[in-house]
Amino acid sequence: MESYKKLLLANKAFVQDKLDVRPDFFERMADTQKPEFLWIGCSDSRVPAEEVTGTEPGELFVHRNIANQVIHTDFNMLSVLQYAVDVLKVKHIIVCGHYGCGGVTNALSHKNLGLINKWLRNIKDVYRIHQRELEGIADSNQRWRRMVELNVEEQLWKLAETSFVQQAWKREQRPTLHGWVYDLHTGYLNDLFMLTWQTEVNDIYKFDFEA
Ligand code: CO
């Protein structure tokens, strides 16, 4: 059997599983979505958002890209973010990185990867900002892990620096921003950072909103 056919067969089993539990599962699901969470994660195939969080269809609004980046010129990410915050009114945004991230590893090399250089450049910036701390960590494994964590933290701040998040914080005291890192070796999520509507953003990034 060709490998892709396995996916279509598994889909039939998925439908049957859902219908066995709730005969109206798909009809109810098709009506509307009201997810409480926006997930911004890495595209890495080993970090499936729904599976590692035990969530069902309808619970997570998802955006994934290489190394879970929040880049203010990325209309794809920004459109997902605005829709999640303004229309779906999510309560939580989770940025989830993972130890052993190939995007982070390549960004800290000197490899010329063509177009991907432009994307990974943002991660080189994270390294430069935290260079002193990172170069002070003697154990190379610990240094890589810390770099992955700092990459997640920097993306949280970039979310807090958007007008969408600032406006929702001011008007509705949501969403809360969470920075997590998934451990490929254990399957556990590390809950590391949290920014809330009470977090002070550096003044230069603040926007004015009408009352
Ligand atoms: Co990755």
Kindly list the characteristics that best describe this protein.
211 residues, alpha/beta, Beta-carbonic Anhydrase, Chain A, five-stranded mixed beta sheet, 9 helices, 5 strands, 47% helix, binds cobalt (II) ion
Question: What can you see in these coordinates?
Answer:
This protein has 211 residues and is α/β, with parallel strands linked by helices. It has a single domain (35-205), classed as 3-Layer(aba) Sandwich (Beta-carbonic Anhydrase, Chain A). The chain is 47% helix and 16% strand. It has nine helices and five strands, in the order ααβαβαβαααααββ. A five-stranded mixed beta sheet has the order 2-1-3-4-5. A hairpin with a 6-residue loop joins strand 4 and strand 5 (189-195). The protein is globular. The termini are far apart. The model has no long low-confidence stretch (mean pLDDT 97). The structure holds cobalt (II) ion. Cobalt (II) ion binds next to helix 5.
Largest sheet: 5 strands, mixed
SSE-based structural type: alpha/beta
Helix and strand succession? HHEHEHEHHHHHEE
Report the count of strand segments: 5
Strand order of the largest sheet: 2-1-3-4-5
CATH topology descriptor: Beta-carbonic Anhydrase, Chain A
Compute the CA-based radius of gyration: 19 Å
Low-confidence stretches are none
Number of helices: 9
Report the bound ligands by name, code or SMILES.
cobalt (II) ion
- Name the overall outline: globular
In round numbers, the mean pLDDT is 97
The overall number of domains is 1
- What is the CATH superfamily classification? Carbonic anhydrase
- The fraction of residues assigned to DSSP E strands is 15-25%
Helix content: 40-55%
Tell me the span between the first and last alpha carbons.
Answer: 62 Å
Indicate the multimeric state. single chain
CATH architecture: 3-Layer(aba) Sandwich
